[in-house]
Amino acid sequence: MVSAATSTQRLNARWRASLPSLQGLLPVNKDCFAPDIVAGITLAALGIPQVMGYTKIIGTPVITGLYTLFLPVLVFAFFGSSRHLVVSADSATAAMVAAALASLSFTAYTPRYSELTSLIGLVAGAILLLARILRLGFLADFLSRTVLVGFLSGVGAQVAVGQLHEMLGIEKGGHGFFRQLLFTFNHLGETRESSLLIALTVLAVIIGFEHFAPRFPGALLAVIGFTAASAHFHWGEKGVEVVGNVPSGLPHLVVPHITYSDVMMVLPISVSCFIVIIAQSAATSRAYALRYRDRFNQDVDLVGLSFANAAAAFSSTFVVNGSPTQTAVVDTAGGRSQWSHLTTAAVVLVVLLFFTRPLSFLPNAVLAAIVFLIGIKLVDYHGLARIRRTMPNEFALALVTTATVVIFGVEQGIILAVVLSLLLHVWHSYRPMSGVIVHDAADHWRLDDPIPGKMAEPGLVIFWFGAGLFYANVGLFAEQALKLVHQSPSPVRWLVIDATAITGLDFSAGLSLAELQRDLANAGVVLALIVVKIRHHGFLERMGLIELIGAHRIFESRQACMEAYRSECSCK
After folding, report:
1. What domains lie within the chain, and their CATH numbers?
2. Separation between Cα atoms, residue 193 and residue 536, nearest integer Å
3. What is the pLDDT of residues 501-526, one digit of tens each?
């Protein structure tokens, strides 16, 4: 009898082989279909206020936020591989685009500005597709979680401060985090009590429901309640700023106006968005795939993300991204496939066709309060505290990234995040763990600190190096190896390099091994190698190292090396 789980796995494999573009939808799990529908409705209830709020960050009409929950969601559901990832508007990429266009002196909420936000989505989509063609999905692994936490925390601080003027009902002023904060502080006397009261009430409603009824969409209740109150009491005519006219119907499919100069102008911010998209989307997809033992293909997801951004651009909205928060909403509500997201798109379609007019009465302070909370939640206090507790050096990198985003801007922050991630990778490879292998009386091997005098047997030192050897760390490797020989309190006869963890070798590593052999030979010490990976043998031969060291000094195991050492020493 074949188990139900095995049958499901085989069915999944057949679907992936025949229809790889529908991995998020097929095969349909009948037991999960009803929960998927409920989760999709929940995502719509919680997501609609959020994506409307993101338009306050990026500076486009409110309707464009709803558009991100329609065509982009549909497209990724069909072309992505992740069964869990929600692709829609995202606060990080929205803040990045807004900061970049503001630095280019474009005015928000103008047709030209909206056109450029769509073009950025189209160019980012093209870069994602190029990354798929070149199989560059692995780049997602090079943005470390440490600097990503710092980056998103900085974005959160910027987003939160950027909404204070709307919550207080005062004029927006100042460019950059500190100037905005200073301008708002200097104009506190102009605060409109109505806007402040609305914002505080919205915050109280959302936070209250999050604590006492976390599954209930408090943000949606606030939107509906204040929209109804505004329409009934005509707040728009009494000095309360409201959203204003919101067009109904489906988004108009248009190709963004493309010129070479415009593409070159938005290329830097599009590349920055591309980096955040692949890093954030891959991390989210991988986390949920591991949780539910699903498979996801980063290269297939690149196609889905590319087409989703193209769909966003053609439907006159802005760049979209894999959203960790919205994905968590679906997961918490019981959704286990992209059928949840198709349900969300269906709900948004109904809203676009029949319920956009009421949105025109929505006070701006409501959306500002929603976005303010989103910004506050992006500041990952728990993540930063955990990094500080476990890896103090990496905590400093996270703080530097946060400070860069806050002081200089989001685009500069993502550039620094990438650079710091690469430097962190190089640092770990540059100064890897190392040690000596010791052999106790119970015939057990263990790794110990690389302290001169610690030996596997009298006169036999087995040196373990915890990374591939390349030009940057060969100096450290040779220094530690020679130290174990020359500073040993008792004579060393053999120095054995345990190559278990040496995954790669370059030309500099070959030269360093040759020099080490000559230095040891001059000191009367034998150099031997153990557990050398088969793929390295050709390299060692081309570098002349097998002849120099001797084929009889290269062993397949520690035990074989020990036996050869004992045999040779007993003959002397």
Report:
1. 21-426 (no CATH), 434-571 (3.30.750.24)
2. 73
3. 998 899 999 999 999 999 999 999 99
